Amino acid sequence: MTDLSQYLPILLFLVIALGLSSLFVFLPMAVSRLTGAHQPTEAKLAEYECGFPAFEDSRSQFDVRFYLVAILFIIFDLEAAFLFPWAVSLGDTGWVGWGTMMLFLFELVIGFIYAWKVGALEWE
After folding, report:
1. Is residue 76 within 8 Å of 112, Cβ to Cβ?
2. Is it the case that residue 13 has pLDDT exceeding 90?
3. What DSSP string describes the chain?
4. Between the CA of residue 98 and those of 37, 59, 77, 80, 107, what are the distances in Å?
5. What is the pLDDT of residues 32-44, one digit of tens each?
6. 28 near 22, Cβ under 8 Å?
7. In the beta sheet, which residues pair with residue 48?
8. Sign of CA dihedral 88, 92, 94, 97
9. What is the pLDDT of residues 71-96, one digit of tens each?
10. Which of 1, 63, 115, 122 is deepest in the core (most CB within 10 A)?
């Protein structure tokens, strides 16, 4: 039989976190309704994007290049973020860690060259 009493602090933490987050969401709404600050108007309920009214259908299709650039940015940004913990722990990992990171960087450079040759970085 498993002793589940070890999980009680985690459960207590989750209950408190859920309660506080609900309080932060719903308390301001309740206070605004009770104090009379809740006065929705047509201008307040209107949809807008970037500070001005939307001029197209919200379900219009985006060009695939936007997604491609975003994915490439995330990929190369995350790989750059892997360099920091590696640099900090290089003294502990030694030559094996250095060789593994050089292989990783080689694969990154190959991927970058491939994206460049295919034209994924070009914006027409």
Report:
1. yes
2. yes
3. ---GGGGHHHHHHHHHHHHHHHHHHHHHHHHHHHHT-----HHHHS-EETTEE--S-TTPPPPHHHHHHHHHHHHHHHHHHTHHHHHHTHHHHHHHHHHHHHHHHHHHHHHHHHHHHHTTT---
4. 61, 48, 20, 15, 14
5. 889 987 888 887 7
6. no
7. 53
8. negative
9. 888 888 888 888 888 889 988 989 99
10. 115
- Rounded to an integer, what is the distance from CA 16 to the centroid of its chain? 25
Contact criterion met (CB below 8 Å) for 109 and 102: no
For residues 89 and 112, what is the distance between their CA atoms, to the nearest angstrom?
Answer: 26
Report the predicted TM-score, pTM, of the whole model to 2 decimal places. Answer: 0.47
Looking at residue 69, its pLDDT comes to 81
| The residue to which tokens 């650039």 are assigned | 69
Q: What is residue 67's predicted lDDT score, i.e. its pLDDT?
A: 82
